[in-house]
Amino acid sequence: MLxxxxxxxxxxxxxxxxxxxxxxxxxxxxxxxxxRIERGAVIERDSASRFAAEQLAGLFSHRLGxxxxxxxxxxxxxxxxxxxxxxxxxxxxxxxxxxxxxDEVAISAPTAAGVYYGVQSLAQLLPGNRSRIAELPCALIVxxxxxxxxxxxxxxxxxxFTVEEIxxxxxxLAELKFNVFHWHLIDDGGWRxxxxxxxxxxxxxxxxxxxxxxxxxxxxxxFHEKDSGLPLHGGYxxxxxxxxxxxxxxxxxxxxxxxxxxxxxxxPGVVAYPEVGCSIEKQPDRPYRVLAYCPGKERTFEFxxxxxDETMALFPSKVIHxxxxxxxxxxxxxxxxxxxxxxxxxxxxxxxxxSYFIRRIEGYLNSKGRHLMGWDEILEGGLAPNxxxxxxxxxxxxxxxxxxxxxxxMSPTSHCYFDYGYEGTSTRHVYGYExxxxxxxxxxxxLVLGAQANVWTExxxxxxxxxxxxxxxxxxxxxxxWTPKHRRDWDDFERRLAGWYPIFIERKIDFYxxxxxxxxxxxxxxxxxxxxxxxxxxxxxxxxxxxxxxxxTAESALYKDGVKVTQTCDIVAAMFQGGKxxxxxxxxxCLKGVPVVAQVVGIRFKMKLGAYDxxxxxxxxxxxxGNAEEITIAPWAHHEAFALQFMGFIRVQKExxxxxxxxxxxxxxxxxAGADVVLADRPxxxxxxxxxxxxxxxxxxxxxxxxxxxxxxxxxxxxxxxxGATASFESLIVK
Length: 735
Fold this sequence. Notes:
By secondary structure, the protein is of the alpha/beta class. 24% of the residues lie in helices and 29% in strands. Strands 25-24-27-28-21-35-32-37-38 form a nine-stranded mixed beta sheet, with no helix packed on it. Strands 8-9-14-15-16-17-18-19 form an eight-stranded parallel barrel, surrounded by five helices. A hairpin with a 2-residue loop joins strand 10 (186-187) and strand 11 (190-191). The longest helix has 18 residues, at 350-367.
């Protein structure tokens, strides 16, 4: 009864607290006592559990320094038993039962996949210090996943990663019970899959010019052959390498879903084989995304069907992702072949022309026993009859598709884009995601297969950066997708997450560690104030600080329980490990009293033309300056790259903590009274970042700085007052 009560309210029972497993199991309870497993132990397995047994033996070897003996079914006195048991059918295709008694460990499941997941849970209970003996708490775990699609995506087009790195990524997924690897193989950044019928796709389309000092540039992509002698970035996977990756994933119960982008995001395909694009003169001033396959030519469909034939021969996945997103229809609107297609098919809009394209491709895939999946733009112009929708532009596309009877995978930018910075998409924010929209009834909700996190690599030039951007958020997403909703609890997850930091360090995984966080980046006070810092409990890490604005050193004051200030000062705090400072640092500006400044009514601006990777110095080289009616980038959006700074004063009427939020594509900074309240000084897709300021009633100077590196541009700004009400930042400006 105790177990049932704990599960009903999602609590962690005292007996469960020792079972630190991510994702949290459906049911888990300790039963008293321990089991010791020592050198000479035996794993008994049936034929279906062969791979799981080998994996478990390897874990013992790595963690404890010795390898158990593996025996087929029928051995006496086994220490660990792995078996597929049809009587466990209530656990579904991926569930398992893990029982640790005083005599043995027994893992049973209705399928080999379930046995494998049981092994992953057992692995998290093993000691990691090569202690030679595994002492496990006696426990009963009964577990199965909430969602059938638990996905992680990786873009290998913008930046290429080796087969060894792809396998390392799959290992990350497997231990956290993800079962879908969405392999984004084709995009404007490069063609990464060998197609034997069309060799120039990889001879030319896999290699792009690498300009000095440039990580990524949407608007300036050039392809050259590998032996051109030019500095190039690129690579591709041979068909044998792809088969190897698919086998490696399948052993770990992971389905590899390939994405072959069409009809847009296909620049290398059109460059390598121009005849599948629209046969009109290309305009050099059009941005990179305008090139698309020509739906007016039968040759285009012959080409794509050939590519899909080779794709399906490599990937047994029933789902083939074809992209379908962000199609610029500029050249379609100028193309006589497209016009003829629209006339003969009775199509009235270019959205209907895109729908025609998707329907034809879907028909071909269906004829081969496969299902088409696309990003939510495939809804435009009418959805193909059997298409599956991946909803990324928020949740509305997923809602619309489910209400129309189509299966859906949710992947909104709000929670699932791991290329977004941790400032706007924190681990806690990811953990709070709920894949089933409230707008769906119970029948419609059944059409939501699950969700996935996406890793777009424009700004991830190496695999270390990929690791940094997914860890620790990947653990939060794993629990969102596996654990029953009522069993999810942030405080309990945070406790279990703390145990993973030593694992990251031991495995040499690059990971994001949140810097010490203050209650506010700007604190205006009277008399005195105590500045509190929240820290992440990472073994061997301490926090030190300085109060004169300088970077702290290993000899600076050790933070314990707050810093009391009585005068204006700038606190800078950082984590230290082994005497080495860990970036980034946290800065808190403490002002005694409201600053006395000469007020200027209205908004001033400065603008600089140029392509910047971070905010420039606005004291020199100004292209234009003057007065502005409002904070907007619209007057300068026609420039490919530029930087702006707005200046003025804000007036607040109430004392308390104000939260300011800046959303930008690319970088931005909001500075109030000289303090960086919000800082996102980097190239990025649209990301919202927030920061707090504790203010007394009064008037404060502000600077809002922004830069646009190329591609899309956007700037949004709002605030929440001390009561939590949201309003436009403009309402605070003294005009």
